[in-house]
Amino acid sequence: MSTSIFFEHLVQEDRVHRSIYTDPLIFELEMTHIFGGVWCYLAHESQLPRPDDYLTGKLGLRPIIVVRDSSGKLRALFNRCTHRGARVCRETRGSARTFQCPYHGWTYFNTGKLRGVPWPEGYACDFAEGKYNLAQVPRVESYRGFIFGTLNADAPPLGDYLGAAKRPIDEWLDRNPGSRVVVAEANRLKFKGNWKLAYDNAADGYHVVFSHRSLLETENRHAADPTKGMSFYMGKPDEAPMYVQYFGRGHHFKDKRPNVERRPGALWEIEGAQPGMAAYEKLIRERLGARALRALDLAASEPVNINIFPNLSILGNHIQVFQPLAVDETESVWYATAIVDEANELEGMADAVNAIRMRTQESFPNFGEVDDAANFEEIQKGLAACEDEWVYMHRGLGIPGRVQRLADGTLKAPATDEVFMREHMKEWQRLMTTRPNIQLSR
Amino acid sequence: MTYVNDRFYEELVASFSDWQRPELEVADVATRDECRRLLEREARLLDEGRYEDWLALYADECVVWVPAAERPGDPRREVSVFFDDRQRLEDRIFRLRTGKAWSQVPPSRTVRMVSNVEVFRAAEKLMVRSNLLLAELRAGETRQLAAWCAHRLAHGKIEAKQINLLERDQSLRNPSVLL
Ligand code: FES
Ligand SMILES: [Fe+2]
């Protein structure tokens, strides 16, 4: 069977084959075709504020060092010594002008260029030639602080890749003072399941009242009317004004903002109770008077999920990153964000906003995501039933008028529709049957 | 519940820094034994799922703080694995009791071992350092979480507990048992 017929069989109009979540060979191919073929999120610029700052991570399974070199340029170096392959840098983050491999002492500048090797007289080669420099991701670009990289020389420019997803990213940033945020530590989780289980879930409005039942009940345990958090999913969520939108290239958007009144304080009102809310709300109201509600909304969770294929989800105030570890193991890191108020728009109240915002951001990973992760693990276990081959994602399919194609070519559907999943699976299938033009630079 | 404010955070951060000083160590056997008994009781109540009885060991204005940073900073500036005041601890218990917290359905079985208990005196309060090894059986697999803990005690109650997980800056699989 040719590769394309094989993948056509695995991804069908209404369903996908279990093996795309379970087969180690497909996973291995994904590391080249998906994580080597498209722009992947690498880091946020606020994690590398100064020249020489670096952090280590992965592009697919490739160990990398994301670094702002001494001249300020962002790079993603392969964390793999050119000599015999050892990881050159073993720290999580730091600041360094050079990296010395601990095995035989080859040393590299933070541009990736080889600085020197011990006892060079023992070599006949010319080390200035460049072929012994660290390999690096040839294209690293940043969109408003979000750093992406791709190995694919034929990938479109980052801005084109993000396409229609740029608008909600802009809106997500522009609601903050100075139109930016900085990363402030993270809730780090992992689960024994394939990475796509998390990506499939990223715009899934169907699971909310079931998978997150305990969270909804907890948030509303004191309320006379259950209006806190994601209560707008109760009843008939498909008739609510929220919607799911498919942007193309695997990116999608769950926009819950239309459920919330467009007035200052509306977001704050539906935020569940979190430590410090009462005291800081009092402080902020005393200081800012009528303008307090706008500040308090910044401490509340923004009701959007902006999902950038394959490994980024901007949701609430979080930057969530999916990191495949193995065919059946995935890390999901929820980077928290803080506001920075250099122009003092909030009259000194930014710290108070952040004091609440840190606690609101701990809530979902603790009371919501753990239950989703438990369900992802149960899917992975369920899929061991190898004769029962299909996973269905046909909610909304074939109902006339349910999915609209908008003028810009994007697709829009009611909140619980699985159209976004069917569409990113088509994109996955297209990528799996297209050989990326992978290039390394040195 | 308004006690979590700037003063609360400042006192918390101050009392959990630089407290394990030799000159503050308590040698008195009776005090040390009282502290150890409290910690052992806490571990037993959690292992038995007696969460309301467990929470009764805590002062009205209490906190359980599990930092996420390798070197924990001010919790107002960074997220923690969790930072729970009394209300959020009650929420946590309520959530587990709904029977729909799928990460704990069926509930994990746990065994907590508490050891290396050392007691320090700070003003009228006691600071207790201990090591915790938590074995958790869930879905047929046994996993371990290790931590060193700091309990701040006053009037026989736990005012604040800091849990410094060995894996605090690593990804955690299903961190949904009460700590
Ligand atoms: S492997 Fe790095 S110097 Fe030999
Ligand atoms: Fe969810």
Helix-strand layout with pairing:
The complex is a heterodimer of chains A (442) and B (179).
Chain A (H helix, E strand, L loop, with lengths): L2 H8 L4 E3 L1 H4 L1 H10 L6 E5 L8 E7 L2 E7 L5 E5 L14 E3 L2 E3 L6 E3 L4 E3 L22 E5 L2 E5 L7 H5 L3 H9 L6 E11 L3 H7 L6 H4 L1 H7 L23 E6 L2 E5 L10 H5 L6 H12 L3 H8 L4 E5 L3 E4 L2 E9 L2 E11 L10 H33 L7 E3 L11 E2 L5 E4 L4 H14 L10
Antiparallel strand pairs in A: 1-19, 2-11, 3-4, 3-6, 4-5, 7-8, 8-9, 10-11, 12-18, 13-14, 13-21, 14-15, 15-16, 16-17, 17-18, 20-21
Helix pairs in contact in A: 10-11, 10-12, 11-12
Chain B lengths: L5 H10 L13 H19 L3 H5 L2 E10 L12 E6 H12 L11 E14 L2 E14 L2 E14 L2 E9 L6 E2 L6
Bound molecules: FE2/S2 (inorganic) cluster and fe (ii) ion.
The site of FE2/S2 (inorganic) cluster has 9 residues of chain A, from loops.
Model description:
The complex is a heterodimer of chains A (442) and B (179). Chain A is an alpha+beta fold and 442 residues long. Chain A has helices at residues 3-10, 19-22, 24-33, 158-162, 166-174, 195-201, 208-211, 213-219, 266-270, 277-288, 292-299, 350-382, 419-432; strands at residues 15-17, 40-44, 53-59, 62-68, 74-78, 93-95, 98-100, 107-109, 114-116, 139-143, 146-150, 181-191, 243-248, 251-255, 304-308, 312-315, 318-326, 329-339, 390-392, 404-405, 411-414. In chain A, the strands form 5 sheets. In chain A, strands 12-18-17-16-15-14-13-21-20 form a 9-stranded antiparallel sheet, sandwiched between helices. The two termini of chain A are 37 Å apart. The mean pLDDT of chain A is 97. By secondary structure, chain B is an alpha+beta fold. Chain B has a single domain (6-178), classed as Nuclear Transport Factor 2, Chain: A (Roll). Chain B has a 6-stranded mixed sheet with strand order 2-1-6-5-4-3. Chain B starts with 5 loop residues before the first helix and ends in a 6-residue tail after the last strand. The interface between A and B is large, with 46 and 44 residues. Strand 12 (181-191) of chain A pairs parallel with strand 7 of chain B, so a sheet runs across the interface. FE2/S2 (inorganic) cluster binds next to loops of chain A. Fe (ii) ion binds next to helix 12 of chain A.
